[in-house]
Amino acid sequence: MRKLLIVSVLGLVLPLAFSNPATAAEGTQSALTAVSGQGTGYVVIAATAAGGVNESPPALTAQVEVAIHGAAPTTTFTVQRMVAAAGSGCTNLSEPLVLGTITTSAGGAGALHFVRHAPGYVRGSQFDIVLQAIGADGTVLQSACMTVTVK
User: Fold this and answer.
1) Running DSSP on this structure, what letter comes out for residue 108?
2) Per-residue confidence band for 54, with pLDDT thresholds at 50, 70 and 90
3) pLDDT tens digits for 58-88?
4) What's the burial of 86, exposed, middle or buried (CB within 10 Å: 0-12/13-18/19+)?
5) How far apart are CA 97 and CA 76, in angstroms?
6) Which of 13, 24, 41, 143 has its CA 20 to 30 A from that of 64?
7) pLDDT digit string, tens, across residues 9-43
8) DSSP reduced 3-state for 143
9) Which DSSP string do the residues of 60-93 spell out, in sequence order?
């Protein structure tokens, strides 16, 4: 009976654990794939109007979610982003900007959620972006090229 209860609860909880929690525009969600090392995950960038619509100078506000699983246990990952001109296919990327860190659990999973507020972006403008999670063990997980539209 106890095993049946545990299996039932896991059946309800596991699909929620691996769903994308933020609502993002098409093209601003990406899998994280291993360039080196082990692990996978996803990135979701949801640009919002909050803080940027009537602000002077204009600004970008975005909810960002980065999740990692299947990585080495208790490994710290530095999350960084590089940007490029919209439509460039992420060529000529900027220098990396560190956004935060994730330390994986004993099971090799972890997540980071933050709000990015950056002045100087005009409403309706776009840019291309790539996110990376670089592990202390040498693992590099990278997103695909995504295009963000400032709301």
Assistant:
1) S
2) low
3) 788 899 999 999 999 999 999 999 999 999 9
4) middle
5) 17
6) 13
7) 344 444 444 444 445 666 699 999 999 999 999 99
8) coil
9) EEEEEEEEEESS-TT-EEEEEEEEEETTS-S-SP
Please state the pTM of the whole predicted model.
Answer: 0.79
48, two tokens: 């919002």
Task: Please give the Cα distance from 86 to 19 (Å, whole number).
Answer: 28
Using the structure block, give the residue that is written with the tokens 């602000």: 55
Contact 101, 68 (CB under 8 A): no
Domains of the chain as residue ranges with CATH: 21-149 (2.60.40.10)
Of 100, 92, 76, which is closest to residue 129 (Cα–Cα)? 92
The residue among 17, 7, 47 whose CA lies nearest residue 127 is 47
Q: Omega of the bond prior to 15 within 30 degrees of 0, cis?
A: no
Going 109 to 115 to 119 to 124, the CA torsion angle's sign is positive
User: Which amino acid, one-letter code, is at 100?
Assistant: G
